[in-house]
Amino acid sequence: MATATFVQAGEALDYTPSADVAAGDVVVQNDLVGVAPRPIAANTLGSLVVGGVFEFPKATGTGKAIAAGKKVYWDATNKVATETSSGNTFLGKTVAAVGDSDAAVRVRLSQ
User: Fold this and answer.
1) CA distances from 22 to 17, 87, 88, 106, 110 (A)
2) What pLDDT score was predicted for residue 83?
3) Residue 1 above 90 pLDDT?
4) How many domains does the chain have?
5) Residue 56 domain-assigned?
6) Model confidence pLDDT, tens digit, residues 58-72
7) Domain check: are 65 and 103 in the same one?
8) What is the span of the domain harbouring residue 30?
């Protein structure tokens, strides 16, 4: 007898929020991070994308550059990608380097 049964490819997962979610919102469920590709009304089944490359906001200023291939984390309080792991949820790895003054970073989501 099979131990596991295939359910779906896994790039997008079903999600029913308790409050409205806007397109592009980052949703953290414990250690799982997803992005809403379109708006989802409260208590309505929608989906979150959990794979692929997305552009996320990042803090700017001295010491805020991030090299390509670095692990980054989602800071839900400040709504930015950061290299700081403490108190934040793993998001993925950067796919291109960004400088101190860049306000966004491209990240390949990893779970």
Assistant:
1) 11, 24, 21, 20, 22
2) 97
3) no
4) 2
5) yes
6) 999 999 999 999 999
7) yes
8) 10-50
